[in-house]
Amino acid sequence: MIHVTLPQLCAYIDGELAEASAELVRRHLSVCLECTERFALLEAQDEVLLRILGDDPDEEFFQSLSASIPLGTPAAVEPVAAATKPRRPRVGAKSREGDRASAFRIAPAAWIAAAVCCIVAGSAAWVTLRPKAPALVIPPMPAAEARPAPLEAAPPVELEVTPEPATEPATEPAVVIAPEPVPAPAPDLAVAEVVEALAPAVEHAIPPPRKQKPTPAPEPFVERAPQHFLPVRTIITETVVSSQAESPAPSALPGTARPNSAPDLSAAVLREARSASLEAARSKLPASFDKSADAWERALPLLEKTPETLALARREVAQSRFQAWAAEPTEARREAAIASARHYLLYAAPGPERDQAWTWLGRLKH
Amino acid sequence: MNRSESRLIWLEESEERGLVFSALQGNRQAFLALADHYLKPVYRLTFALTRDRNVAAGITREAFGRAWFGLKGMPEGRRFFPWVLHLARNLSVAYARRHAGEMRDVVPVAEDASAEERDDAAREQALRDALRALRPDEQTALALRIVERLSHAEIAALLDQPSVNALARLASARGYLAQRGNCAAEEREGAA
Lengths: 366, 192
Fold this sequence. Notes:
heterodimer, A: mainly alpha, two-stranded antiparallel ribbon, 2 strands, B: mainly alpha
């Protein structure tokens, strides 16, 4: 049976259908329980909406409201609870009121003041927060070594040289030296390159580089089930499971061995649920679908932190329950399928999958 | 109230044009005549969008105030009511956006309420919450249909859209509200 669509029902409720179309809808509603229920639901909903959205104050309210409309100066138009501010009139627009122009005359001054404040605040922030290069402590060097011929393109760089107490003669003060012989020719030389060029001189002033963590060993090859006949949803789930499973093995990191950690557990449960789904899809036996649904239900609590996978798992549960019921209808399966479909619909985003779940629910109920 | 009868009564176009012309010359009485005629529908729309009487009154006041000062900018050949309604709608939407976190109207439930009354209250609460999630155009179309009983063609004209869009907005809004209502009901059943 072809049901009445939602827009058709809405048009019928609003009296917007032509008489012939309205008659067709009327006839359909007289024989279709599902559409009649939807129609009744929408009608009842409109009644509630009228109660929520409607407000009919007395005449006195409107009289006072009319009397309070600001027809004086633009400043009298108060933005409601700072919702918006009155818009400035266009430059050159003639004012209807004598004081209208004066009300807006302060606007340019306010803009200028605001701009000045922004510039001052920005400058202050820049001065205080700009990254400052640390003073380089350079050991004393012979003058001939310290001053090779500078490159022409290199910009003059002033470096504050602080004498090192242990090795520096007491008579040599801090000096400003000429540009260092920087190998990079470009004037916009990167700081890293400057530091690298000066490395021999400042080696002892630079902290040693951090030790990098050892990269985990590549994952051994794991044979997987063929995927060419899997639904897309299952493949996505598998990807998520794989990404969780691909995290470095706890035993590979010294001192962090946790044999039964949560990611391992969830990955294992998800793997089991996926294989149960595969088995059910292959065998199409009601017991297999039941088993698949059970496996996905076990996985649900472990997927709280991955909403996308959680939604997929809910759908898998609902689908497996429905398929089990469709393969071999029993009252227990019907109830379980309705419960899981409702659970999925509670959180599912709008879309064709959600619509399909509504279809399952409709079939399960009737 | 007749469900198909529109509550909006338009001014005669020639009369409205004369009032607008007089208002443009600075005649406040002419503008007040316009405002008095369209005050109620504008207020009803703003109330439907904000669901707060004081806020709706303030927005209505502000919309007409802006209309008075910006009457010269009203597009040539456009009717006054759609224009001022557009102002009020924009103000309401801006207000709702700024106060999105604060605006939650809770349906009171008496302690000795029956299970049926509690169900009704919960359903209404779900509807109120779901209304906030509708797009502004959907909310406006729904308000104009439910409260003003305007036809789809009138709604489309007020929203500056083709007529078929009004039906699409209404169907989409009603479908979403029904879904949310069903979900809430099933959630309650599950909890029970």
